[in-house]
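Fill in residues.
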């Protein structure tokens, strides 16, 4: 997971929000014809938000695993030194 993935996810989320807001304005002016399209766009924004949350949870789990491995290695070195 590189920095480019976070940038893309944030970009798509921002675009989804902008398009969704524009869609909400159009729906209020033009009625039900655009309502389905706006709902579809907003559903994609929700999907992106969920994906970003999953990516953050995965990153957190990976960091916890690395920290646990580091503690284990440190304890092992201390035990061998004693």
């Amino acid at each position: 997971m590189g920095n480019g993935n976070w940038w893309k996810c944030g970009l798509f989320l921002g675009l989804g929000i902008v398009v969704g807001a524009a869609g909400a304005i159009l729906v209020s002016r033009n009625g039900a014809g655009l309502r389905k399209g706006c709902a579809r766009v907003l559903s994609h924004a929700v999907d992106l938000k969920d994906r970003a949350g999953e990516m953050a949870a995965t990153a957190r789990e990976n960091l916890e695993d690395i920290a646990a491995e580091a503690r284990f290695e440190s304890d092992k070195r201390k035990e061998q030194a004693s």
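The mean pLDDT is 84.
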